[in-house]
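Appendix B. One record, verbatim.
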Amino acid sequence: LTNFGTSGSLFGNPIINPPQVAIIGTGTISPRPVALSKGRLGVKSTMGLSTTFDHRANDGMAAGHFSASIQAAIEGLDFSQLEY
């Protein structure tokens, strides 16, 4: 995991360092216009998430499913339950 969002970057392309076979990068969290249900528009906080992986060790479909599972887990968090 690498976080290039600390410098304000929305997206980045993390580089794999052998013997790693994949890495996830997170961008900055910022408000952006998004499509809501029933064709409405709204503003939500969003974060860029990128995955770099070695095709010699991972199948692209499996890496895509892994990225989607990370996205679903983050989007499903209930932040009202967190204590700071």
